[in-house]
């Protein structure tokens, strides 16, 4: 049976959310009628900013891998943050932290990237145990940021399943919704009486089922309607064809929103 939360609107979920980043995300989704997050996995600052400007009308969130940028300066991060306010989206740095609490706090707040200062949302593996959540929280909570945990992955043969996934959900419950707001997962991993977690889902494509390197794609309908996920993450499906970036973003926005509206009818 579908999780009860899947029939609630994004707006109603925003209204009662204790975390300001999750609230902003859910409000943005409702206002712009989009559950699309574009993953901008290109290596030049100018190209990142160009794609972000093109997709902005169709997204609730932009996802980065800041460590792939060859000409990174902190100006890029500041410009992304400025665009997030001007063009109305949330920033998700897909950092996948995976170390002890003390180290991840430093990796999150310091170094050249200073992720906590500009990325509203980031994510962490649960393999180190709950210390990773408190370590990141020391840097991110005072800034109003949010954290999601990797409960599942999209790639073939990954080990995040079964008991591992259940333990990730248990760790989120214990952390509190004011900091850990949900999961990277392929389906609703939470239970009916859980807090209102967000399920954010990569591995989304309308045209192909894989990339030959382990990625596995499902359609927005499979992800949002059938599996009850909240946000679809699309990378190459949108930015690969340089002449159709805005058109592809619109296509995924429409497909994702239609799947959400159909889910509300269940
Ligand atoms: P794609 O081009 O749509 O395949 O990109 C997917 C993005 O999502 C890419 O940045 C990955 O690093 C990211 N991702 C993923 O594909 N699967 C996962 O389980 C997680 C992240 Br977590």
UniProtKB/TrEMBL annotation:
Top-level taxon of origin: Eukaryota
The protein, known as: Orotidine 5'-phosphate decarboxylase
Catalyzed reaction equations: orotidine 5'-phosphate + H(+) = UMP + CO2
List the source organism.
Vanrija pseudolonga
By sequence similarity, the record places it as follows: Belongs to the OMP decarboxylase family.
Residues of the active site: 94, 96, 99
Orotidine 5'-phosphate decarboxylase domain ranges (all copies): 35-251
Q: Where is the region Disordered?
A: 1-19
Q: Known Pfam families for this protein?
A: OMPdecase
* SMART domains xref list: OMPdecase
Pathway field of the UniProt record reads: Pyrimidine metabolism; UMP biosynthesis via de novo pathway; UMP from orotate: step 2/2
Residue spans making up a coiled coil are: none
Record's PROSITE patterns? OMPDECASE
The protein's UniProt keywords, in alphabetical order, are: Decarboxylase, Lyase, Pyrimidine biosynthesis
Q: Which NCBIfam families match?
A: pyrF (TIGR01740)
Q: Name one GO biological process term.
A: 'de novo' pyrimidine nucleobase biosynthetic process
Positions annotated to bind substrate: 41, 63, 154, 215, 235-236
Q: Please name the PANTHER family in this protein's record.
A: OROTATE PHOSPHORIBOSYLTRANSFERASE, URIDINE 5'-MONOPHOSPHATE SYNTHASE
Q: What EC number(s) does its UniProt record assign?
A: 4.1.1.23
| GO MF assignments | orotate phosphoribosyltransferase activity; orotidine-5'-phosphate decarboxylase activity
